Amino acid sequence: MTIKCKGVFLEKKIILMSISIGLLALVLFLAVPALKGYLYFISMVLMFITLLYIFKLNRFDLLLIGVEQEEMHLSFINNSIFKRKDIRIRKELVKVTLENDKLIFSIDGQQQALVRKKAVSESDWEQLQKVLIH
After folding, report:
1. Distances from the Cα of 120 to the Cαs of 89, 103, 108, 129, in angstroms?
2. pTM summary value
3. Mean pLDDT of the chain
4. Longest CA span, the chain
């Protein structure tokens, strides 16, 4: 079984960041005319720092989940800044828990990956729960 996930969390946060930084830049432009010369630089620095933070938050989200008889393959969405190598591991070494519409994959007690319910179709979500939650 192979399931492909969408980057809904990443998309939502990037859109929210763009709107909020744009509004903040507009407010600064109108409220403090002395910053006009530095406004472009300030808004780009804010956008870059926020983008780094969003990619850091997104480092656990999965792109592909491959479950075979005894092995599991996990591939991550974020392959740009906080790169995660693909994980290929035996199924019994992975503990999967359900918390707040997220499946959290833990190996040796540490969170390694997660899948959000909105990132997969309803049928794939049900299939993941049946196969992975013990």
Report:
1. 22, 11, 26, 12
2. 0.76
3. 87
4. 65
